[in-house]
Design a protein that fits this description.
This protein is α/β, with parallel strands linked by helices. It is built from twelve helices and six strands. The chain has a six-stranded mixed beta sheet with strand order 2-3-1-4-5-6, with helices on both faces.
């Protein structure tokens, strides 16, 4: 099985979830080692927000006046401390008195009104890793000597995949090999020719990317990129005999976007560079005063949004007889991932039986 998708779609998180479910012996070691990456991400993340706050203000001082950080002495001191740790790996011996102060500084900078305003403008404005607000809220604990990442921390931790990672596991005496490859544009040329006629292609797309831009190109909508890549993968001669399984991932973050009133027209409209069927906005969510009616309306809007995105992906194959299996996932939810991978394994086993002439 080949795990594909654009950058930050959640491929590696699904990969890690599977290792936890199958009780891989390296999981605990990897979970502990993710502490270094989480700390690095906290430093890099707050520096990115500070940089973007200035860029947004410079681009439009009137519209983004609230993004400008007031450079009073305590803030300058906090920023300087963070900058000092900009290239720190956190894997060597540390001065934990200073590292704890770093945690306090990042927490203070994160809670500035200007930082919150800048963070709120991410999405179609600039690229920023998912789940960083989760880590910023806990950064004081993260920077202590006693901190050990939880399973949830490890799953939400962003690590950019380069090259290829292979994972072999067996369930009920059936051996599966899953390959995780890098999702950024410059990684993709390494994918294809090695995997002709692989049993199944698992393509991961982040639903919340309808309101996000690419890490490599902040002028390009991330979901547009995912649809273009899936179109390419779906129609490649190398994968004609492969099962095509689509994971519409990060449903939890997708729901947050919908609840915040971010319309699918941010992606699926002519104004946003979309030249196929547009989202008409009929099911854009607006809160209702009655809790029961509001819940029903939200579920309806979420369901219709999922159907629309799913229909866009289902329409890309040039082979009208091709079946594309689709799953709605949240890679950090172990129960969902376990159910989905059981379905995937059944699909792959049935496919192999058909290829061997043992099943019609």
């Amino acid at each position: 099985m080949l795990l594909l998708g654009t950058g930050s779609s959640g491929k590696s998180t699904l990969f890690k979830s599977l290792k936890i479910i199958t009780q891989d012996q390296n999981v605990m070691t990897e979970q502990t080692e993710s502490r270094h990456v989480i700390r690095q991400n906290c430093v890099a993340g707050i520096l990115t927000l500070l940089k973007k706050s200035q860029e947004l203000y410079d681009a439009n001082p009137e519209a983004n006046a609230k993004c400008l950080v007031d450079m009073e002495d305590r803030i300058v001191e906090a920023i300087q401390l963070v900058v000092n740790y900009g290239s720190e790996s956190f894997s060597d011996a540390l001065d934990y008195d200073e590292v704890e102060q770093l945690g306090q500084s990042i927490f203070m900078l994160w809670n500035l009104e200007a930082t919150q305003e800048t963070f709120a403008r991410r999405g179609n404005t600039y690229s920023f890793p998912d789940n960083m607000d989760y880590f910023f809220r806990r950064v004081r604990e993260i920077m202590t000597k006693e901190y050990n990442p939880t399973t949830e921390d490890s799953l939400k931790c962003r690590v950019r995949t380069t090259g290829m990672i292979e994972y072999k596991y067996d369930i009920k005496d059936v051996v599966f090999i899953l390959y995780d490859v890098g999702g950024q544009r410059n990684e993709r040329k390494k994918w294809i020719h090695h995997f002709a006629d692989v049993a199944a292609v698992l393509f991961v797309c982040a639903l919340n990317h309808y309101h996000a831009v690419l890490f490599e190109d902040e002028k390009k909508n991330a979901l547009h990129e995912a649809i273009e890549l899936f179109t390419e993968i779906c129609n490649l001669k190398w994968f004609r005999k492969s099962e095509m399984i689509l994971f519409l991932n990060k449903d939890d973050l997708f729901k947050e976007k919908i609840r915040a009133g971010v319309s699918l027209r941010e992606c699926f409209s002519v104004e946003k560079g979309w030249n196929k069927e547009e989202w008409d906005g009929e099911f854009d969510y607006q809160p209702l005063p009655d809790d029961v009616e509001d819940s029903q309306r939200f579920n309806e809007c979420h369901s219709e949004a999922i159907k629309f995105i799913q229909s866009v992906f289902m329409a890309v194959s040039n082979n009208q007889h091709r079946v594309i299996f689709c799953h709605i996932t949240c890679a950090t939810d172990q129960e969902t991932v376990q159910k989905v991978f059981w379905d995937v394994q059944n699909i792959v086993i049935r496919s192999n039986l058909r290829r061997g002439g043992l099943m019609v």
